[in-house]
User: Fold this.
Amino acid sequence: MLLNTYEPWKFAFSGENDEIIENSFGIIGVPFDSTTSYHSGSRLGPIVVREASFGFEKYNTVFNKDLTTSFYDFGDINVVPGNCEATCRIVEDTVNELLDLNIKPIIIGGEHSASIGAIKALIERYGKLTVIHLDAHRDLAFDFVGEKYSHATVMRRAHEMGAGLVQIGIRSSSADENEFVKSTYNVQTFKTKDVHKHMDAIEYYLINIDGPIYISIDMDVVDPSIAPSVGNPTPGGLFISEIEVIIETLSHKNVVGLDVVETAADRLGDNTAVVAAKIIYDFLTLVE
Assistant:
């Protein structure tokens, strides 16, 4: 058990925390949604995603492979309701604990702000980081309703820390965010239509990224006909088969962490929770 955590549920197939293997993965939940601006409920995401994980077999038929990766579920962190910056610091501290154990983090959200703490810890540890950001939105606002720590500012904070950004599935943005992308460096964009029409080019780009990679997946990147229970649903999203291709491509790279956030479901068996659990399940099946 890590500091500042408790265990409400465990992801299916996770190992026992008293016999930890180094260079494995560790799951933490972040039940926080205090900056949510539209549909609340992602604070329940960690619980419903874990529950949904028990619907999968250990043999992954999509990839013709057993889930043999060593990973552990350390439970949820103790968030500070209403205080995003303080919660991000707790995420950062908890990720640092995992890194000290030579364990790579997997975060279940909760709102997207959780990524700030994880990215900060990883950049300080590795010195260099590329964030593969799957999202309907850019999340590059300098501030949102006066707040610098928010679900809408995550990637702006990551960029300020020095992370390179590859944004995939973008289909909603403010004019200011678009101007920021045009005026800065180190931000590559693949919009939804690019994924639908030019997946080969995206695969080629991803496979040629050097150095440590962090994958951040906002569930609103998925088309809302498939995953409707998110903080900011946006029509015209990605399909599960496209996310499978992206995850499989990245599994051959040096992935040092993953988050799957913004599952805003209030019931067990919710479609969005099942898809979120599948993304984590597929990732764990593919990485070694």
In short: Residues 63 and 130 are 25 Å apart (CA to CA).
